[in-house]
Amino acid sequence: NGMAAYQRAEQERVTRADEDTKNVLQTVKKVKPHLNKQSDKNSTYNRHKGNLNHVAYQWGRVYHSR
């Protein structure tokens, strides 16, 4: 039955997306404390902070557009 198959596929997609969200958030959590400890704030911290925010932002767009 096509509808059931569709719903199952949709459910898997949502579950996978939620897993991806958890992974991204955990990565951000893991990386952030290290970045905050940078004594030379300007170089490494700011470069990576930009990357993290960009990843989070891009992920938010992907996540909310489904």
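Second entry:
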Amino acid sequence: MLFILFTILLVVTGCEDKVKSHDEIQESSSQNHSIPIGSWKKLAPTYEQQLKELAKAVAKALEVPEVASYLKEEIGKKFDGDYEVLWKDVKDHPFVGKGNLRTIVANHLDNQSYSIEDIEQVPKLQIALPVGFEEWDGTTPIKVAYTPLTIDDTEIEVINAYDASGNQYELNAKIPPDFTLMAVSINERTDANGNVTYYAPNQDIYTGAEQSVPGDGDDEGGGGGGGGGGNSYHWQKLYEVRSRDYKEPFIKGDPEVRLKYIGFANGTAQVTNTHNLDTVFDTYWHWHIFLFGEWHYDHDWHDLDRNLFIRNASSYGDGIGMYWYEYDGGDDWTFSVNFGSSFSVNLTIKDGDDPMGHVLVPYNYSSQSRSEAFDTGDILFTMYHH
């Protein structure tokens, strides 16, 4: 018994050591520029009301066990890497003697100002299970929330959810509830046609090994030569990464963390690439021993060991600019970013995205340990040569 109590105390203590409070996270964050609200957000008040009405209707529809079971099954397929499914892909599914999902949900809309056709105007409409997928039996009715759209993700404090009787519940947006929660929202991982962007299930698109390519003599050699007098160039790997703040509430599921890396040479930007880390982080994680448990932000180190680029002085000789952000979508927005006093580059992200800081990695950097990690304020990461 004493051993069990000691183990519980050890787990709790270990967890607390890894986690900062939300206030501490905010203080340590570095947003290097402000992002304007894009034109797509001008429609947010209408979309938010539509999501609210849909949440109430779906909560009532979940009283049909077949509906609940079907939605859990489809959401569990994680078509884009997270527990969510597009409305367009499930709405026509038939249920014996009850019509299709669209009809069932439409029959439960209690606000005559919004029809199912109005609700389907919401772009990339989805149903998700951001909390408690594994714990849900897929038949018991659960509460359904909607994602606020009229306020920035970083400022959301309250999430509204509904049960099958129409009762409203106010949830803390910073801490997941201790029960399974469904949510209706706008998908952040697909394009306008519903095609997944970046995420490739069961596929490693960042493979590669030491290669020999043509180049100048300033780069370091090594490895098996490739002929033609060229030097052997080495993969530069993003080895480990840790986040201090994911810039969004739990209801939006796992964060879509992205990295733009820019090669500077001869005083100017030579190449710009985007790397996706959609499936790396969990917004929150939960530890549980017997009757004890607690939710925490995911601030653990994650091992990646991913190839980013091949070392090449003509493209990266002045250094590598690493710009991190959390993807939310919207319209294209182009802005200028300074990496130190010597380098500047124009980058394009979406006007709904949240910056997570940037840093310049020297061309001749040394492979680091975690204590020597590059730090943007929100992101810590290590790199090494392969």
